[in-house]
Write a structure and sequence with these properties.
The protein has 336 residues and is of the alpha+beta class. It folds into two domains: 188 residues, Fructose-1,6-Bisphosphatase, Chain A, domain 1 (2-Layer Sandwich); 129 residues, D-Maltodextrin-Binding Protein, domain 2, CATH 3.40.190.80. 29% of the residues lie in helices and 24% in strands. The strands form four sheets. An eight-stranded mixed sheet has the order 4-3-5-6-7-8-9-10, sandwiched between helices. A hairpin with a 3-residue loop joins strand 7 and strand 8. The chain starts with 6 loop residues before the first helix and ends with a helix. The model has no long low-confidence stretch (mean pLDDT 96). Bound molecules: 2,5-anhydro-1,6-di-O-phosphono-D-glucitol and manganese (II) ion (2 copies). The site of one manganese (II) ion (MN) has 6 residues, from strand 5.
């Protein structure tokens, strides 16, 4: 029988070999993974669990909240607030930070999450997910405030996502490569199914919402035009396109077989840097992508170097196979 490695065993062994997963961080990751298990159960119940449809409210970004956005947010808060590893949490679905209540011990970590990514896919039974990012609270002061969260993505100590698809898969980095765990529903445990994930440097597959093409900046248009020109165009090869409209699912495909994902700035809302959020979408995904040998930028600079000035800050995103990300970024840097 092949030996099965559980998430717990993986984390313990990582700590033994590299010493970068202190007990508090391990607890935190395991609790997030447990919360994802619970979310996965709700997702799977669908209409039978009365979890589909809208909740009748809006989040801080003016987006209509789905029932599952709220359920997933509550599951993550409830699961994580008591363990003693965290000082505070932040979420796409909450305007301000959630400070761990006084009745629980305060830990040294900060957790950020997009509780339910791909909300438009919930009701149509297409893959959705949960994204999370872990930072350390800066030393030297009591209490915790929003400014403690405003750290560049390179400061993340762990990041990951769970994709609720045909399989439920947890993808994790603690800064030493990327590991994937598949949920064994009978046993209720996460089993390591891939380690040392690597993204090929080259690809013939791009992911972008093409319906926005007329609104993009010239460098973005140029890149896609060249891909569409195929074999007889400047790239000399045919490209394929995929767009799931759940970042988690698109990134999961890229981690599995390569590709480039883009959600660029567009001229409809010129003051918005992009649609996706830096701190709980772009940063954790960029950390994973870099750890798998890929690259991630905001079209101008490395994503993980961007210093945030707002919790819910938006950003342009280009991530995936290194050579394509470098090309898209170079077109933008050159301004055309
Ligand atoms: P969320 O459901 O958390 O608001 O995120 C949705 C995001 C992302 O998952 C996806 O890549 C993108 O929005 C899809 O946008 P379009 O609807 O413009 O395709
Ligand atoms: Mn999202
Ligand atoms: Mn979301």
């Amino acid at each position: 029988m092949t030996k099965r490695i559980s998430l717990t065993q993986y984390l313990v062994e990582q700590q033994r070999q590299h010493g970068h997963i202190p007990a508090q961080l391990r607890l935190l990751i395991e609790v997030v993974a447990r919360a994802c298990k619970r979310i996965s159960i709700s997702v799977n119940k669908g209409a039978l669990g009365d979890v589909l449809g809208t909740a009748g409210s809006e989040n801080v970004q003016g987006e209509v909240q789905k029932k599952l956005d709220i359920i997933a947010n509550e599951v993550l808060i409830e699961a994580n607030e008591w363990g003693g590893a965290l000082a505070a949490m932040a979420s796409e679905e909450m305007e301000g930070i959630y400070v761990v209540p006084n009745r629980y011990p305060q830990g040294e970590y900060l957790l950020l999450f997009d509780p339910l990514d791909g909300s438009s896919n919930i009701d149509v039974n297409v893959s959705i997910g949960t994204i999370f990012s872990v930072l350390k609270k800066p030393d030297g002061h009591e209490g915790v405030s929003e400014s403690d969260f405003l750290q560049a993505g390179k400061q993340q100590v762990a990041a990951g996502y769970c994709v609720y698809g045909p399989q439920t898969t947890l993808v994790l980095t603690v800064g030493d490569g990327v590991a994937m765990f598949t949920l064994d529903r009978e046993q209720g445990s996460w089993v390591l199914t891939q380690d040392g994930v690597q993204i090929p440097e080259d690809t013939k597959e791009f992911a972008i919402n093409m319906s926005n093409m007329r609104h993009w900046a010239p460098p973005m248009k140029r890149y896609i035009d060249e891909c569409l020109a195929g074999k007889s165009g400047p790239r000399g090869k045919d490209f394929n396109m995929r767009w799931i409209a759940s970042m988690v699912a698109d990134v999961h495909r890229i981690l599995t077989r390569g590709g480039v994902f883009m959600y660029p700035w567009d001229q409809r809302e010129p003051d918005k840097a992009g649609k996706l959020r830096l701190m709980y979408e772009a940063n954790p995904m960029s950390f994973l992508i870099e750890q798998a040998g890929g690259a991630a930028t905001n079209t101008q600079q490395r994503m993980l170097d961007v210093t945030p000035d707002k919790l819910h800050q938006r950003v342009s995103v280009v991530l995936g196979s290194k050579n394509e990300v470098d090309r898209v970024t170079a077109y933008h840097q050159a301004g055309g």
